[in-house]
Amino acid sequence: MSADLPFFRYHPDPLATGSIRAATETCVCCKRDRGWIYAATFYTARDVDGRFCPWCIEDGSAADRFAVDILPALKGGDS
User: Fold this and answer.
1) What does the H/E/C string look like for the chain?
2) Under a CB-based contact definition with an 8 Å cutoff, are residues 44 and 38 in contact?
3) Residues in CB range of 21: below 8 A, 6 or more apart
4) Per-residue pLDDT for 52 more than 90?
5) d(Cα 63, Cα 65) in Å, to the nearest integer?
6) Residue 22 and residue 37: Cα distance in Å, rounded?
7) Radius of gyration for the alpha carbons in the chain, expressed in angstroms and rounded
8) What is the pLDDT of residue 79?
9) Is pLDDT of 16 > 70?
């Protein structure tokens, strides 16, 4: 995995599975284009027009701001 990406304890190689891919999209949460985007399924009752960067998933800001449930295998930290 790229040294630039956060580590996901329960999904150590999200690039290989395609859950995270290189992209020029802006993260809907932090509004930054960081070169990587989460490309897999997420669940929320809110309307979300865009995708999340791996850092907003890892630090929980995507979940907090959008009440998002990322597939448990990709959640960062000790969750």
Assistant:
1) CCCCCCCCCCCCCHHHHCCEEECCCCCCCCCCCCCEEECCCEECCCCCCCCCCHHHHHCCHHHHHHCCEECHHHCCCCC
2) no
3) 15, 36, 37, 39
4) yes
5) 6
6) 6
7) 11
8) 43
9) yes
| 55: nearest Cα among 78, 24, 77, 79 | 77
CA angle, corner 62, sides to 44 and 7, nearest 5? 120
**Which token pair is 19?**
């859950």
C-alpha 47/C-alpha 55 separation (Å) is: 20
* Cβ atoms within 10 Å, residue 39: 16
User: The whole model's pTM is what?
Assistant: 0.80
Tokens of 62: 């995507």
**Residue position matching structure tokens 């599975």:** 17
